[in-house]
Specification:
Chain lengths: ~475, ~270
């Protein structure tokens, strides 16, 4: 009997017309409530609706902001589906004193927003999925959306919704190679070593290249963050790329200020790395802000070794804010969307999502990790970003290789631009698992995807690949000796 | 040959053949070049010695070869078990530790709620109040943290070496405890309840695939309300393949002696040096 009771919802929302909402002046409480299956659910803010409408994630539970029951989650989803884009626009989850909020609002198109401000989030979902909506439509509408709207629509989408939505959007970028072309899939060769042994790093680079991994970037996480040490690895990787005439870019994933110092001292940097988060507080913990990123971009324009115009490699992931105690009561997924809204200002070459890297207190198991990866790919693409995914797990999560491979295949179907490539999937420096060189080659062959254009030619010249398939010569690092 | 003899022979044949089919396998992991027809096997062998990374392993199509794939899964299984298994009571008894618990009642709660592992449950707090020795110089805590394997395989030698070192220096030690499902910050509560000068936690580290036996030692001198992370001194990577446990125990005893003399730990202690 209970099942036949129609869902009834009542929505009360206080709206206001000026822009005072952005600065928290005379902050009014938004009252939202919904009757669902005979139960009344009350929400005190758009922020609360967003948090409770998300699929279950341990980080939101730990922060005490997730839904208390499955039906409360559905009440929040229903409420969210009836909110207009204007409701969300006027109620940013964090005020514009926060640099991330300010940049999201500064960079969006008011004109495009005005056209769609009356849509509900539920209508936005249907627009994304409609046969009549193509890549160009989504690229345009993206400019009228705040990150909270993008997070909101993803919360109303299932796994297939997210994959189909993501699949529609392709975003290209150029550093030395062009990433994101249809039919192509790139990889970062990630040859880390526990104590930065240059010969050890080089051996893993050769191994990766022999599997066709490394067209997105050859990117090394340093164990030693000292400028001289970082510069040494930059020189070593650059020289190797020059020697073998490899169409790619090098990068050492030290803190941005360290890379900038190395660059000023003449070290060859093709791509500049930085981790980003979705609140001012968390970015402070990362030691980064808009001023530093602007400076890094300008420095790359004048001193970097690459063509550009896309010089940045950003890493993001759900959970960084909650683990840094900088979440401000906002759910992990919405904070991740805000990170993308912030990142897009600096026109990155790669945005890599590493949800799953932190541990079970943010994403408990394989199911939560896979869900986060699908959300992030979709949300990143709806921000017009050249997204890649690192489906990762740590050893204290309830996830294993099977979960990781499922996440890899699903996001590859969704059209991720790139993945990582780690020897045997085991990062011996960072103590976590990521996609292996073998996985890289497998995803390409399984889906008929090719390496980036210039890099594919190089692989053919080296005798590593023919017609999109690895040759007998592939997988042997000693071909470089 | 009569029928009985024939039956006997057949039966004994069968018995033998059953025995012959018994198969015992000894799993071993060793680094070797498993690339089919490499240009230079010697070169691959050489670089395999330079990095613990899984290189020179070859492939089946685009996938890993069977043994390499299973090696990877064995290492992950060991790392997972290290987190999800409890430390055996026997190991705790052998070290003479009293068994206490944090507020985390399940592994799920422990992993998902950082706070639950940072506080003692009521019974454990009462036990410490009523039974533990008070006012000693050093209080030792063993915590499972994220690796029970680390506690089982690394802590026994480390603990013995540490306690012998402290004894030889005439440093007084309170009732040693093991706290199940506990994190580092629980040491602050234990220190308050036992009124010790200095507290040291030997705690299982987040396991990697390379080792799941690693232990860290966290030390703090007189923790209080105002204590911050920078007041804790940490020594990590204690295991057979890192800093050997016996060596680490003796070293920690020396460090504790100096901390007691200087009444400091963490950054303040580092500055003194």
């Amino acid at each position: 009997m209970q099942n036949s009771v129609p869902v009834a919802a009542f929505l009360f929302l206080l709206r206001w017309t000026d822009q005072s909402f952005l600065h928290g002046e005379g902050k009014k409480t938004v009252k939202l409530s919904c009757t669902l299956r005979g139960e009344v659910y009350r929400f005190h803010s758009v922020k609360e609706v967003l948090a409770k409408a998300g699929e279950e994630k341990s980080g939101d539970v730990m922060a005490g902001i997730g839904a208390g029951s499955s039906l409360e989650r559905m009440a929040a989803k229903y409420t969210l589906s009836e909110l207009t884009l204007k409701d969300i626009y006027e109620n940013p989850v964090i005020s514009a004193e926060d640099e991330v909020t300010r940049i999201i609002y500064e960079d969006m198109s008011r004109t495009i927003y005005e056209e769609i401000s009356g849509w509900t989030v539920g209508e936005l979902r249907e627009y994304v999925l409609s046969h009549d909506t193509g890549a160009e439509d989504l690229k345009r509408i993206s400019r009228g959306l705040t990150s909270e709207m993008i997070s909101g629509v993803a919360k109303l989408m299932s796994s297939i919704d997210l994959v189909l939505g993501a699949q529609k959007m392709r975003h290209e970028a150029h550093c030395n190679t062009t990433i994101g072309e249809p039919g192509r899939l790139a990889f970062r060769c990630q040859p880390n070593h526990p104590v930065d042994n240059p010969e050890g790093i080089l051996a893993s680079i050769k191994e990766g290249l022999s599997y066709g991994s490394g067209d997105a970037v050859i990117g090394i996480n340093p164990n030693n963050e000292a400028v001289e040490s970082v510069a040494k690895i930059l020189h070593m990787s650059h020289d190797f790329i020059q020697k073998w005439k490899i169409p790619t870019q090098n990068c050492v994933l030290a803190h941005i200020t360290t890379q900038m110092e190395a660059l000023r001292q003449g070290a060859p940097v093709a791509l500049m790395f930085q981790s980003l988060a979705g609140t001012n507080a968390a970015n402070d913990e990362f030691g980064v802000n808009a001023g530093i990123l602007d400076e890094g971009y300008e420095l790359m324009k004048s001193k970097g070794t690459s063509a550009g115009p896309n010089f940045f490699y950003f890493e993001t992931g759900q959970g960084s804010e909650v683990s840094l105690d900088g979440h401000e009561g906002v759910d992990m997924q919405t904070l991740e969307a805000r990170t993308y809204g912030y990142a897009r200002r600096w026109k990155p070459f790669m945005v890599n999502n590493v949800s799953g890297f932190i541990g079970p207190e943010t994403l408990f198991d394989g199911k939560q990790m896979i869900r986060a990866d699908l959300e992030d790919l979709f949300m990143g693409k709806l921000h017009n970003l050249p997204m890649g995914i690192a489906p990762t797990y740590t050893n204290h999560m309830q996830a294993d290789q099977n979960d990781q491979e499922i996440a890899g295949m699903l996001t590859a179907v969704g059209g991720a631009n790139f993945y990582m490539g780690v020897p045997g999937g085991d990062d011996v420096m960072l103590s976590y698992q990521d996609t292996s060189y073998h996985d890289d080659a497998s995803l390409r062959e399984m889906l008929g995807l090719r390496p980036l254009k210039e890099f594919e030619k190089w692989l053919q010249k080296m005798g590593i690949m023919e017609k999109g398939r690895l040759t007998n010569r592939a997988g042997d690092l000693s071909i470089f000796d | 040959m009569n029928i009985e003899q024939i039956v006997e022979e057949v039966l004994s044949e069968m018995g033998r053949s059953e025995k012959a089919e018994e198969k015992h396998l000894q799993y071993e992991q060793k680094k070797e070049v498993t690339v089919a027809d490499p240009v230079s096997k010697e070169n691959i062998e050489y670089v395999q010695r330079l990095t613990p990374a899984r290189i020179g392993i070859g492939r089946a199509g685009t996938r890993m070869r069977t043994k390499n794939y299973l090696d990877f899964r064995v290492d992950h299984a060991a790392a997972q078990d290290a987190v999800f298994k409890d430390v055996e009571d026997e190991v705790i008894e052998q070290m003479g530790l009293s068994l206490l618990k944090s507020r985390a009642v399940s592994m799920q709660e422990y992993l998902m709620n950082l706070d639950a592992g940072r506080k003692l449950d009521d019974a454990s707090a009462d036990w410490l109040k009523n039974h533990a020795e008070k006012g000693k110089q050093v209080q030792i805590i063993v915590s499972d943290g994220l690796s029970s394997t680390g506690v089982e395989e690394t802590v026994p030698d480390l603990y013995l070496s540490l306690t012998q070192g402290l004894e030889s220096k005439n440093i007084t030690v309170g009732t040693p405890v093991f706290i199940r499902k506990s994190r580092v910050w629980i040491q602050d509560e234990v220190a308050a309840l036992t009124d010790c000068e200095l507290v040291i936690s030997l705690i299982g580290e987040r396991p990697g695939l390379a080792t799941s036996k690693s232990i860290s030692a966290y030390i703090i001198y007189k923790p209080g309300e105002e204590s911050v992370e920078a007041d804790r001194t940490v020594f990590s990577n204690i295991h057979e393949g890192g800093v050997p446990p016996v060596e680490a125990g003796a070293y920690l005893a020396d460090v504790i002696e100096r901390m007691l003399e200087n009444k400091a730990s963490g950054v303040a202690f580092a500055r003194l040096k």
